[in-house]
Fold this protein.
Amino acid sequence: MATFDVSSEDKVKILVVDDLSSQHVVLRTVLEDPDQDVVTVSSGRQALKAVLQQEFAVILLDVNMPDMDGFETASMLRSYRRTASTPIIFVTAYADDAEMARGYSLGAVDYILSPVVPEILSAKVRVFVQMFRMNRELQARAAQREELARMEAQRASADEARQRADFLAQVSHLLTRSLDVETTVTRILETSVPALADLACVYLVSDGEQPPRPSLRCGAALRASMDPAREQEIDRIAPLTRFFELAEQTMAAGESLVCRGEASRMLGWADGKEGEQLAVELEEIRFHPVLSGSERKAVIALGIAHCGDDHQPAPVVTEFVSRASIALENAFLFSALRDEDRRKNEFLAMLAHELRNPLAPISNAVSVMKSAEPGNAKVMEWATGIIGNQLDHMVRIVDDLLDVSRIARGTVTLQREPVPLQTVVERAIETSRPHFAARSQAFSCDQHGDELVIEGDVVRLTQVVANLLNNASKFTPPGGHISLSTSFSDGTAVVTVTDDGEGIEAKLLPHVFDLFAQGNSALDRAQGGLGIGLTLARHLTELHGGSIHCWSGGRGRGARFTVELPAVSAMAKPAPVADVVPLRRKRHARVLVVDDSVASTESLKIFLEMHGYEVQCTHDGISALALARQFVPQVAVLDIGLPGMNGYELATAIRAENSLRDCLLIALSGYGQDDDLRNSRSVGIDHHLIKPADLTSLVELISGHVMGGGTSAEDGGRPLDR
């Protein structure tokens, strides 16, 4: 029998249980060995305690002991898991058959009669000691093999985790190298096959655009299974009807979808020989949502030809889809920012162009006036007409820009009142009629029979409809036709403007109401304009609780804009709204003009003196207050941005003077935000006009104050914001 070397730390222990100390000495003498350690106890209870603390190769048990004999001790030892199979040798001075049978039934392996024969006892015990050593060696080797297997499994798991991490790191690196949408889609497909699947397809849908052809990539497994004789070519694989149904279902639910039974009906060749529909043989295809926004949605489909093939596990696929979604979203955001920046630059270039256009005729008119003979009435009439028209054009441009700014900051205030829709339409038509006449365009109007009333701001509503009419005229060639119609249904008034002009491309339709978006930015645009009219129309419509929509059949097929607004049908036709300006007989008045711009001061002085007013001017707040105390004006026209003492401080000082308490204070400034208007009211300014102001309105304010006996219009007039 083989023997094993055992170190001193691994001595085999033998337990001797006997109530006689002399027997302990005998057995210890016989059994002790350099590689064996004999433990002696005097009772069964001590034996039970010893086996709980140490492991023994064999137990020598005396049969006859007080309190707990050998059989009871053996029965208890067999009930312990640790000693259930430990060999037990009974040592007794006498043993009959019945006693031996009882001992063997309790798990004894042998009986030895006392006094013992040392050679026999030593030989029998050695057998069990060697068996114990062999068993312990086998257990150690099994533990080593188990540890080795565990380490190999951990190493394999670590290698697999490292490979997965390397794969995902490579995916992130590839997907973040480019912010181009098409390049990102291509790289998603390249990293999907064959690492994740045998076939990959990215299906992208953008609102308002025709969905592009789904992008596909196939692996070697599918290429090898194709049959050229059946006209199976890799470049002709396309999604079949069922693919689109499941892709739309995935996008709608926003959750992944697995298809196995119908996997072979997803992709293939739409027309094989004799019109048959050939399909790619797939065992499984998984649809994963990549984008789920309101403007665009995308799905990546991963098809597997044989599920037993070596592909990345599901957690890696989930992480890949997440990173692909982030990369695609970043690509679209970058594309949107790039387009926005391009439109902004085009807008700024257009703004510079539109602002320079009026300056050229103004400059020309000034040059003609300088060169003409003094007092030439025809030249003066011609020049003032040119300057006035171009100035009006510039004012409209600045007003539009201010409106866009107010809307962006949410500071637009509507003066709501019941407004007949007919009044809005008639005013808008009157505003746009010169555009139709200048381009020889035919215009028709078909209004709803009932009187429709809208709760809104008549000026802003007119601006909405006029912008749509002007836009239609701008993009309709000379001789074209423009129509306006109104209708009413379920508490909603509908205004429709239709033209047969240039039309709108399908890709531009979702963006026609966006700021800076223009369909034609060529340098030879004869129509002019900043392209922000539709943006204003949309925001103003939404402020009134309505909506605006656009439709076009494409380039050269005209366009149709529809405005929907909450309205009611009035049974009785209300009295027409008319802008009535009462005629007042001008009366001599003293007017103080304060402005740090010498040109503005002198020109305004000349204009007011032409209307019979006595005018004094100054250019800073401190001198203005001194002049006011001396001149005692009935009206003071104040700029806000004054040196030394600004317009608000000057107004406060004027109101503090008893002699100037009834002086009409009119602010004439380039500052026209809502905060500026509130500041004016807080210091007692009666009216706030924005440069360049309508000087006729200024004269009417002065005339009204003078005709009223010089009382302040603070309570009777509404500050102007135009």
